[in-house]
Design goal:
Blueprint: H1 2-9, H2 11-34, H3 39-52, H4 57-66, H5 75-101, H6 105-136, H7 142-167, H8 173-195, H9 213-221, H10 224-241, H11 244-254, H12 259-288, H13 290-314, H14 320-344, H15 351-373, H16 376-390, E1 396-398, E2 403-405, E3 411-413, E4 415-417, E5 420-422, E6 425-426, H17 434-449, E7 463-467, E8 486-500, E9 503-516, H18 523-539
Parallel strand pairs: 3-7, 7-8
Antiparallel strand pairs: 1-2, 3-6, 4-5, 8-9
Length: 542
Amino acid sequence: MKLARNLRLSLYQLWLGGVSVLMLGTLNRILRVEMGLNLALIGLLLGGAHYMAALVSIPIGHRSDTHPYRGYHRLPYILAGTALALVTVVTAPFVALWVAQDPSLGRLALAFAFFFVEGLGINVGATTYLALVTDETGEGERGRVVSIIWTMMMIGILVAALGGAAFLETYTFSRLVALFAITAAAGVVMVILAVWRLEHRRTVPLAAGKHPLRAALLILRRSRQTRLFFTFMLLGLFFHFLQDVILEPFGGEVLGLGVRQTTLFNAYNMVGVITGLLVGGAWAIPRFGKKRVTALGNAISIVAFALLVAIALRREPGPVPIAIALVGLGTGAFTVGGVSLMMDLTVSGQAGLFVGAWTLAQALAKFGSSVLSGGIHDLVLRAAARAIQQHPQVNARWAGDAIELAGDINLGFAVAMPTGLIVPVVRQAQTKTLKDISRTCAELAEKARTGKLLPDDYSGNTFTVSNLGAFGVDQFTAIINQPDSAILAVGQIKDRPVVIDGGIHVRPIMKMTLSSDHRVIDGAVAAQFMKTLKDILEDANF
């Protein structure tokens, strides 16, 4: 009977998984490549707005503890949040197209508000849903329950990934709209089946409604163990989710894969996640405990990310499915252990409050990772163009027996193809805004993937940028792309200790390395150029 209950309850997660693929995977890729929107803006809209809406998680969770509707603490909030999410999911493709056509400040603000509302619906429903799961399960069975419901979520992701890939094998906007509409319709059925008549009506509230939220939050603060746990989960989730926004663009821009192929990345990941969830919940936790399974998930993920770094360096897409599956395996083990520990920490009558705190930690981690991982490529190109204008010697070449200065700044950027590396060129970069550069890069990358690049698209470069930072590479030295005289190697943004005013502080640092032809560019000029580039990036003077 419990198995049937858990399977029915998990239908909510099944739908939620499918929605996450469309909103954070497929729509992310479409906005970037097919619609040409800047990665930073995509991270802000799809990641930032969605996850910032999780700020409501704690107050909503607390309210579901203290303010039932006709004796039901969770059901009204689940249904209300889901209804709001369903409406926004149906209209999301139209909003995406609208803002991509003209990413002005006004449209961006309205689009941010729209995706915030979508995130609001998801967070209200998901927070109270997990509180209901906590209410309905005991400590001894939570490992298995978490394993079942999260496995169903991953199955939803897998089905959406495979179905979306097949549906969008030939991409058109009308097919994208149809896919989102089908997902919303399926959500209506699955959510109602998941929660209808599952919660028992209570004559006595779980917690007194008169308690203010501030007083309730003291429950979270009074325990050192609770504070440390949520800090640990915040950091762990941040690094697990860091790849979410860049994974599909990575496949498209670096490995030259199409929409159908990059959508399949979700399938590879979810195979690993499902394995981690099932093995972790059903076998590992009963034998080794929840803490050790959580730590093991982190260790597996470290190995997987190291493999992705090696793939990025070799520019060979073959091992990508294995690496992505290992990332999923680590995430699955980490999730089943971490969520089970979170449920064990709940105080009687305050499940909504604790789940809200968990949801907020998860969302903050995803928000930070999504915004941090997007937009660096285009920003560096724009900053490099600005710096070259101040140091034109960097934009020169060796012409046999003399130095030849280039008139225009033509920036090359590396794109890996199955047949080898190719360097499309952003021409006259000194005349282009950040928006222009972003759109041009997206167009050139897509032409490279579809075999439509013309010789003029990949010739005439005067300076090259090679960015491996998005793939976890800390620092590297790039080989000069002839006939250029210099190439800029861009590493990842990473928190590092620095000395400021005599004290040690942690700041986000990005390492860059300039390789130069000393026949054209001596050390002093190279150093001056790098200082100027550093100042432009730090001052956000684009």
